[in-house]
Design goal:
- This protein is an alpha+beta fold and 567 residues long.
- It has helices at residues 55-66, 92-99, 104-110, 142-156, 196-204, 240-244, 312-323, 370-389, 395-424, 429-444, 446-457, 487-490, 550-560; strands spanning 13-14, 48-51, 71-74, 89-90, 112-114, 116-119, 123-126, 137-139, 159-171, 176-186, 223-228, 230-233, 251-264, 274-278, 281-287, 293-299, 330-344, 349-350, 353-355, 361-362, 481-482, 485-486, 496-500, 520-524, 532-535, 541-545.
- It has a 9-stranded mixed β-sheet. A 6-stranded antiparallel β-sheet has the order 14-15-16-13-17-20, sandwiched between helices. Strands 24-23-25-26 form a 4-stranded mixed β-sheet, with no helix packed on it.
- Helix 1 packs parallel to helix 4 and helix 1 (55-66) runs parallel beside helix 8.
- The longest helix is centred in the last third of the chain and has 30 residues, at 395-424.
- The radius of gyration is 24 Å and the shape is globular.
Length: 567
């Protein structure tokens, strides 16, 4: 794959002295550390360094670059798009976010849709009732998502720096200095390769990026420093960025010795996703689309270390116990073990350093929410960073809303995914009884079922709003019909969208020109609705009114989409 890269001469680079500490001291976990000063006066910084080229990092980098921000994506691994990924499902809210970037239809064409979701054998949930254009699950391996996101990031001008490992950072009032080491080669190409080392990094979510507006220059001991206004760690469960700012990652291992295998099957399963738990065994089957299937299995009595040898007979046995048969699995091209943790960082922001995706939260794979939650983190953060770098005056307050909005969602995902896996593996009589009671309750109580489905698919989350706000503020905006097109088409390009009644559209038609050109779209309802609505680039409502005049709307826009200034 070909792409453009920025001239290396426009970056700020300083050599890291040999033996320098790689950590920024923290006053306490979850609070911003006292700003550490670099050993020499730091230059003012611009742009963003994203560390980690998984789905979260790729989406974030692409969003920032499309908004005109200089972005470098630093990646520890060599450049390749691996097929050794655990994520296989895109939920409705994630597809809506991808639709707002013009990517959803392409991904839908690559995957397979599933309109019913089975839980605990007896409970089947109809996804066709979702109030979304995407009223289904999209079954698609993670590597296919990464290919599309990487292509977009390259086209937007993101600089990639592979085989570059973060060793520490310091931040000051003007920016962040990231310490790295490694080959540091810029890359725009890659192949679908499989190897055990890459698989281990994928399982941990480890990845990295080359900072926007930075360049590489060898220093003593091979060290190097990259400089940017902000750094975002999307580098997985063992995040070097999170460790460098001294943030704890509290939690625990929930399931040990989960087995993974990519196999061919002699018998095709009756359903697109096959999952069940019986007694001490759990198993899940999902297709790659190339003739191979991913098998994920676990047996309560087989609690061994991740490096314990694994053979296909063990995978077959677990599958037979959980699913009743092994579907004639054969020709395994890859097998491994892993353990599943539940952890969450106490803060997603420490000064000019932020976390997203698995660097901020990890949980069990139940419900397929991992990659989806990370992508939604990126969608929330990207437009905020772009706005701050574009001159928005309330920059710190705006970035603080990332923590306020996404940390509760991460906590909720930990609880829901953990609850699903615990109920799926219930063994004691009282836990089995609790599962039967919950299944019956969800089967007969529509509002409870809708709430659960909204959490799993992401469309049910709303962000808190200031006291006295319109009831719609903070809520997800559905893909409503507009006089010309639909909302999620209007959001493309990372724009705010102001929706007004048809008869008032002319009065506001010029608001999306001048210094707001490309950052605001003005549209009118296709219906006779009277509400004036400002929708954020991530598809949540920023402001709403039933009777706003031109002065009020002008004041709202002045705060949300201010005049562009030098970043």
């Amino acid at each position: 794959m070909n792409g453009t890269t920025r001239n290396a001469a426009d970056a700020v680079v300083r050599t890291a002295p040999a033996g320098t500490s790689a950590e920024t001291p923290a006053d306490a976990p979850g609070t911003a550390p006292t700003a550490a000063r670099a050993e020499v006066p730091a230059a003012a910084a611009g742009g963003v360094i994203v560390v980690g080229a998984g789905p979260t990092g790729l989406l974030l980098a692409g969003d920032l670059a499309e908004a005109g921000v200089e972005v470098t994506l630093v990646e520890k691994r060599a450049h390749r798009i691996s097929n050794l990924s655990r994520a296989f499902v895109l939920h409705a809210r994630t597809l809506e976010q991808l639709d707002a970037r013009g990517l959803a239809d392409e991904l839908e064409a690559k995957g397979q849709t599933l309109d019913r979701l089975g839980l605990f054998t007896r409970l089947t949930i109809d996804l066709g009732t979702l109030p979304s254009r995407f009223n289904h699950l999209l079954v698609l391996p993670q590597y296919e998502v990464e290919k599309v996101l990487e292509r977009r990031a390259v086209a937007a001008g993101v600089r990639f720096r592979y085989e570059t490992e973060v060793t520490g950072l310091v931040q000051d009032a003007d920016g962040v200095t990231l310490r790295v080491r490694g080959a540091g080669a810029d890359g725009t190409g890659g192949t679908d390769e499989t190897d055990a080392a890459d698989a281990a990094d994928r399982a941990d979510g480890v990845s990295g990026t080359d900072g926007a507006g930075t360049t590489g220059r060898a220093g003593p001991g091979g060290g190097e420093e990259l400089r940017a206004a902000y750094v975002v760690g999307t580098d997985g469960m063992r995040s070097a960025v999170r460790q460098a700012v001294g943030l704890a990652f509290p939690g625990r291992s929930v399931i040990r010795s989960v087995v993974l295998a990519d196999v061919r099957l002699a018998e095709e399963p009756e359903t697109l996703l096959t999952v069940n738990a019986v007694g001490d065994a759990f198993a899940f089957l999902a297709p790659f689309g190339d003739g191979y299937y991913r098998v994920i299995g676990w047996h309560r009595g087989r609690d061994v270390a991740d490096d314990e040898p694994l053979d296909l007979d063990e995978v077959r046995e677990i599958t037979r116990l959980a699913l009743g048969r092994d579907f004639g699995m054969h020709d395994a091209r890859w097998m491994s073990r892993f353990h599943s943790d539940e952890r969450q960082a106490p803060s997603y922001r420490v000064g000019r350093v932020l976390l997203a995706g698995d660097a901020a939260h990890v949980h069990t794979p139940a419900g397929g929410q991992g990659m989806n939650t990370g992508l939604q983190d990126a969608a929330n953060l990207g437009w905020k960073l772009a706005a701050v770098l574009g001159g928005r005056r309330d920059g710190d307050a705006l970035l603080d809303t990332y923590q306020a909005e996404r940390h509760p969602v991460g906590r909720s995902v930990l609880r829901s995914s953990g609850g699903i896996v615990r109920l799926a593996m219930a063994k004691r009589p009282w836990t089995l009884a609790a599962r039967r009671l919950l299944t019956t309750f969800l089967d007969h109580v529509g509002p409870a079922r809708t709430r659960m489905l909204g959490r799993i698919t992401g469309i049910g989350y709303a962000y808190s709003a200031p006291r006295g706000s319109h009831p719609l503020v903070g809520r997800r905006a559905p893909d409503v019909a507009l006089r010309d097109g639909r909302l999620y088409e209007a959001l493309r390009g990372g724009r705010f969208v102001l929706i007004v009644p048809e008869e008032r559209a002319g009065a506001f038609a010029d608001l999306d020109g001048g210094d707001r050109k490309g950052r605001l779209a003005v549209a009118s309802w296709a219906s006779d609705r009277r509400t004036a609505l400002l929708v954020r680039p991530d598809g949540h409502v920023a402001w709403a009114s039933e009777s706003a005049d031109a002065a009020e709307i002008g004041a709202v826009l002045a705060g949300a989409v201010p005049a562009r200034t030098a970043g």
